[in-house]
Every structure is written in C-alpha cells, then in structure tokens.
Write a structure and sequence with these properties.
The chain is of the alpha+beta class. It is 32% helix and 19% strand. The longest helix has 25 residues.
C-alpha cells in the first residue's frame, strides 16, 4: 500500500469519525436509524477477528465471595482472588437490591430518553465534570467500540445538580452506597496484604468520585466489533454493577473467561495502582466486553482512583518491600499517569510495564 493510499485511508476514517461524532446521538442513534450493518469505524482488524477463532472459552467461574461470612475466611478469599484472578464478585455486600435496580434503570432512562437532552451532555471536554459520548478515545483508538457512556468525575462530593435529571437521584443514591462498600473492600484488601485494615484508606485510594455508566445497544453484527476493547483499569479498585445481559470477559490463563451476571452481585477488580502499591502481589488483569445481538447491556463502573486532581506520588508500600521481595516498580505521579492513559486509545493501554525497575 502506497503512502498516498494510507494517508487517504486515514483521512477517510477521520471524516467518518467526525460525521458520526457530530450527530451527538451515539451508538444508540445509529441503531434507532434502522441500520442492519455496523459502520466501518466499528469493524475490528482482520487479524483480531482471526485470532478470535482460536479462543475456547473454558467453563471456569470468577470467584464469588460472600461478604457476610467470617472475617478470616473473607480476607483469605479476597487475597486468593486478588493474587490469581484480579477479579471477584461479591454478594451480601450491604447495598439493597432496589438501589441496584434503580441505578440500572436510571442509566437506561437517560440513554433511551429524549435525544436533545442527551445532546446537552455530549462532550469531549475533559474539564467538564459530567459528559456523555461514544468512546472517550474515539479519535485515538484503532477501532471504535459499540457503546455509549455517561461519565462523571468529582474531586470530592457529587454536585448532583450537574447530573441529568433522568438518572440524578438513582446515581447519587448508588454512588453513596458503593462508596461505603469501596472503603470496606479496601480494608479487606489491606488485611489480605498483611497490613492494618486502614492502610489503603490512609493512602487516599478512595478519594474522589468517578463513575462510567455504559450502555451497550443490541448489535446487528456483534462478531465484527467489541463493546469495550481489552484493557486494564487505572484505578486502585473498580466496583462494577451490571444488568442481566452478559458480555464481560476476563483474560485468565491465556483464555477469555466469561463473567456471567450473578443475581445481586457486584464485581470488584484490581486496578493498576493497587498492583503497583502491592508491589505486584495483587494483579490488574486484562478484561473486555463483547457485543451482543441481545441488548441493551447496562453497567456502572465506580472507580476508586485516588486524589486524581493532585499529582500525588505512589510507589510500592514500604512494609511489603524486603531483601527477599525488592521493589519491582518505580514511583508514579497519579495525575501524570491518568493523563497519559487518556491521551492514547484504550487499545494501547499503558499498564505498568513502563514503570518497572
């Protein structure tokens, strides 16, 4: 392929992305237009589609942890899951089922509601606390993902008046509940590392409020695209709520494992910064969301990201370093890391390799 042809191809793709972005109606808008084939910008490269045929999808389940069990048992289960999987589901977590249902319904109502109302929030301006868009990395990723997202980010308390009315009350209610759960999980993770229960909370791992509420419409050609490309999370910990439509997969032992929706459960996964401060003891693993003919799939990811408005420095926890277990990562500036993460496509996820000693 000549240089001119490559340049023309890139120009054509940019024009297609801009035309789609300018509609400000997202993937849901495409589906509502009645299309039966997905646009080229969503089609994965042929080599990725060929690789997909090699996966076997073994019948293995991500650990499910009952938080109402004995403390010693729960801490051990959290430790094992965090070391081996980087993912686990939690039940009896203390958040009422009606709160979970209202949160899911709020996301649905926003995405399926008035188009002009959604357009008011459509933005790629990272200075905005609340924004709606299709793929934050639409222009930097190799392939667009089949999802729309309403995201909010507040350094302290949620300013509810900035949220869409259709999901305002349900989002604030859920966020307040999941913040308490996040602190509880950080205590369990601290103990699982052999530290005092308040250690990770004292590191301000839970400071700030960040949430991404995803809407994955039914896809006419799900075999050609993804709902979310493979990536790891920049947070310390992510707590995920999902509805009954499956699609989440975790990369475990060189295969993609399906994370089946478990009634009333929430999913917790280790983020890059918890892998860093635990000196690699806990794993931040690749995960993705596949597209489905069934839909919509709805999820809400709550991120314990730390004080991202500050450029606080994080490195391996001193108590976890010894001659037998030397530090394997350099110190990282939190805000710099997140800015670098957002500057590239999700499919070029930074991970932690660059910060290895």
């Amino acid at each position: 392929m000549t240089g001119v042809t490559i340049q023309q191809k890139n120009t054509d793709r940019k024009q297609m992305l801009e035309a789609f972005d300018e509609t400000k109606t997202g993937v849901k808008g495409l589906l509502d237009s009645g299309l039966d084939k997905i646009p080229e910008i969503f089609v994965r490269p042929s080599e990725e589609l060929s690789e997909e045929l090699t996966y076997k999808y073994p019948k293995i389940e991500v650990p499910v942890i009952d938080l109402s069990a004995g403390r010693i048992q729960v801490v051990e289960q959290v430790r094992s899951a965090s070391e081996k999987w980087g993912f686990f589901q939690v039940v009896n977590h203390g958040i009422p089922s009606e709160v979970l249902d209202r949160a899911i319904n709020g996301v649905r109502e926003f995405n399926e509601g008035d188009v002009e109302e959604k357009r008011k929030y459509y933005s790629r301006d990272d200075r905005r606390n609340v924004k709606f868009s299709t793929n934050y990395d639409l222009y930097s990723s190799k392939t667009a993902n089949w999802r729309d997202s309403l995201r909010f980010s507040f350094p302290d308390q949620i300013r509810s008046e900035e949220l869409p009315l259709s999901c305002r009350e349900s989002t604030v209610e859920y966020s307040n509940h999941v913040a308490v759960l996040g602190n509880n999980l950080l205590e369990l993770l601290s103990e699982a590392l052999g530290l005092k229960p308040d250690h990770l909370n004292k590191l301000e791992c839970a400071k700030g409020r960040r949430m991404s509420m995803h809407y994955y419409p039914a896809c006419p050609e799900p075999e050609l695209t993804l709902g979310s490309t493979k990536h790891t999370d920049t947070a310390f910990l992510t707590i995920l709520l999902q509805n009954h439509v499956n699609g989440l997969q975790v990369f475990y032992e060189d295969q993609w494992i399906k994370v089946e929706p478990y009634p009333g459960a929430l999913i917790a996964n280790i983020g890059n910064f918890l892998q860093l401060v635990s000196n690699g003891k806990f794993r931040s693993v690749m995960h993705r969301v596949v597209a489905n003919r069934e839909g919509p799939r709805i999820s809400a990811a709550y991120f314990l990201s730390g004080p991202y408005e500050e450029n606080k420095v994080y490195g391996p926890i001193e108590e976890l370093i010894s001659e037998e277990s030397p530090a394997i990562y350099r110190e990282v500036h939190l805000r710099d890391y997140i800015q670098k993460f957002l500057s590239v496509g999700l499919d070029e996820n930074l991970g932690l390799d660059f910060w290895k000693i």
